[in-house]
Amino acid sequence: MERKHEKYERLIARCKALTPVPTAVAHPCDESSLRGAVEAAELGILQPILVGPRARIEAVAAQFQLDISSYEIVDAPHSHAAAEMAVQLVREGKAELLMKGSLHTDELMGAVVRTGTGLRTERRISHAFIMDVPNLDRPIIVTDAAINIFPTLEDKVHIVQNAIDLVRALGLDQPKVAILSAMETVNPKVPSTVEAAALCKMADRGQITGGILDGPLALDNAINLAAAQIKKIDSPVAGLADILVVPDLEAGNMLAKSLTFLAEADAAGIVLGARVPIILTSRADSVTTRLASCAVAALVAQARRQSASKAVA
C-alpha cells in the first residue's frame, strides 16, 4: 500500500516545473476557498485573480493571516456578479483556469453554460473525480458523478473523450477505460450494457480516440485482475482500468463516496469540456486534495497550450 496522498503529491510535484497558470477565482470569500487559492499560488501552481467583493476578500485574508498583497483583485458586488466576471476574464484570455470559491456550484456553472457569454464548446461538459485510493497503485478517474444526471449515449461519447484527454494530460498515453455496468455481458434488458458495447465499437471506428475501451464491465473485474481472471475475461482493460465510466450520476456519486468513506480515498475534482478546466473544491477537502485539484487543472491547461502550439506550427 502506498503512503496516503503519494499519488497526489506526484501530480503536485510535476507542476513545479510549469509556469503558474492565470486563474480566475470566483468569490473566494471564506477561509477554505481563499486559502486554497493562496496555497496553490505559493507552490507555483496558480497565479490567482481574485474575483468578488474586495472588502470581504480582504477581511477574510486579514482574519486568517493570508497574504494576498501580490494578487490582483477584481471587485464584484456579490457571488452572481463574481461568477459572471470570472467567466468574462476567461473569455478575454486573461485567465486559463476557472476556480470555484465560496459560491454554489450551480451559480458558477450557470455562468459557464450561459448562451452567448459562457464557456461552452462543442463538447458536453462533464465532471471527473481523480481518486487517490490507498490500496491502488495508480490514481483512478470516476466520471461523471457530479453534472450529467442521466447521460445519453451521445453524452457518454463526450464524457469518455473528456476523461481520456484528462488522463493523457496527466502523462498516460493510452489510458484504459472501463465502461461500467452491473455485469460484463451485454443484456438488452440492461441499457447500460448496450451503451457500453456501442461505446467500445465507436472507439474501434475512431469516434473516440486516445484510449483503450472495454465494456460492459462490473466494478470488480474492472479494477481487480484476479476477479477478471476468475471470470475468464480476456481484455486489456479488465483489472487494469485507469478510468471508470459510470452509467449515471447516482451510480457515480455512490461509487466515489464509497471509495472516500469506506476505502479512505481522496477525491480531487475537475470539470472538463468547457473552454478551460474548472476547479471544483469542497470545504471538506483536505489541503492536499485541494492542491491536487489545482495541479490537475494546471497540467490540463499546459497540455492544451502545447497542443495549440503544435497546431500553429
Number of strands: 11
**Strand-residue proportion:** 15-25%
Write out the strand line-up for the largest beta sheet, numbering strands in chain order: 3-2-1-4-11-10-5-6-9-7-8
Structural category is alpha/beta
Average of pLDDT: 93
Description:
The chain is of the alpha/beta class. It has a domain at 122-273: Isopropylmalate Dehydrogenase (3-Layer(aba) Sandwich). Helix content is 43%, strand content 18%. The chain contains eleven helices and eleven strands. Strand 1, helix 2 and strand 2 form a beta-alpha-beta unit. The longest helix has 26 residues, at 287-312. The model has no long low-confidence stretch (mean pLDDT 93).
Helices and strands in order, then pairings?
Layout: H1 6-14, E1 21-26, H2 31-42, E2 46-52, H3 54-63, E3 72-75, H4 79-91, E4 97-100, H5 105-113, E5 126-132, E6 140-143, H6 153-169, E7 176-180, H7 191-204, E8 212-217, H8 219-223, H9 225-230, E9 243-245, H10 249-262, E10 266-272, E11 278-279, H11 287-312
Parallel strand pairs: 1-2, 1-4, 2-3, 4-11, 6-9, 7-8, 7-9
Antiparallel strand pairs: 5-6, 5-10, 10-11
Summarize the model shown.
The chain is built from eleven helices and eleven strands. With 313 residues, it is α/β, with parallel strands linked by helices.
Features:
313 residues, alpha/beta, Isopropylmalate Dehydrogenase, 11-stranded mixed beta sheet, 11 helices, 11 strands, 43% helix
